[in-house]
Design brief:
There is one protein chain. The protein is built from 4 helices and 8 strands. By secondary structure, it is an alpha/beta fold. The chain has a single domain (about 10-140, about 145-199), classed as Rossmann fold (3-Layer(aba) Sandwich). The two termini are about 20 Å apart. The structure holds pyrazine-2-carboxylic acid and zinc ion (ZN). Pyrazine-2-carboxylic acid binds near residues 13, 147, 150 and 151. Zinc ion binds next to loops.
Length: about 200
């Protein structure tokens, strides 16, 4: 079985959103076009409580995009984004959500961030996605979404560590590039870890 993994195709990551990824809207049509080619389509959804520790607003004296230590892990402080039950957390309006078989929310624990769709950043808790994919007898994952240098990267690296074969659909990805070159470095890291890069 082949599964398509759609990473965080949510309003806050699109132009005009709270944590807009440049050209993030360009990947929606890529996602819609690929869905019919897969046995299963899975979406991850960044789904934070308002008091989440990754939000700069919850750390007085700190600013957005600063790095801090959050309960023992390095944490980039982000603008408030993808708060549960707000419009910014909804899937992109153009996304064919009827084609999605299963959604895995992540980032609900205010004490720790969760870039990957599989585990939190400390690999302490599983979302259940790996177990579910194995139950469906999925062996190969094709991953696309936002953002290449954060949630896509960590989802791909965890998928490889969980022994799935992974294709990265680059045309369906856009990144943040907080530092110039971050996206290229992320793609190289995924390739070196065993992902097949599709362009
Ligand atoms: C993401 C930063 C914070 C992502 C999520 O989807 O890549 N990035 N939360
Ligand atoms: Zn987030």
């Amino acid at each position: 079985m082949n599964a398509l993994i759609l990473v965080d195709l949510q309003n806050d990551f699109l132009p005009g959103g709270a944590l807009a990824v440049p050209e993030g809207d360009a990947v929606i049509s890529v996602a819609n076009a690929l869905m019919p080619d897969f046995d299963l389509v899975v979406a991850t959804q960044d789904w934070h409580p308002a008091d989440h520790g990754s939000f700069a607003a919850n750390h007085p004296g700190h600013s957005e995009y600063q790095q801090i230590d959050l309960n023992g892990l390095p944490q980039t402080l982000w603008p408030v984004h993808c708060v549960q039950n707000t419009g910014g957390a909804l899937f992109a309006p153009g996304l064919n959500t009827a084609g999605i078989d299963r959604v895995f929310p992540k980032g609900m624990n205010p004490e720790i961030d969760s870039y990957s769709g599989f585990f939190d950043n400390g690999k302490r808790q599983s979302t259940g996605m790996a177990e579910w994919l194995r139950e469906q007898e999925v062996e190969t994952l094709t991953v696309l979404g936002l953002a290449t240098d954060y949630c896509v990267k960590f989802t791909v690296l965890d998928a490889l560590a969980e022994n799935f074969a992974v294709n990265l659909q680059l045309e369906g990805c856009r990144g943040v590039n907080l530092q110039p070159g971050d996206v290229d470095a992320a793609v190289e890291e995924m390739r070196a870890a065993g992902a097949k890069i599709l362009t």
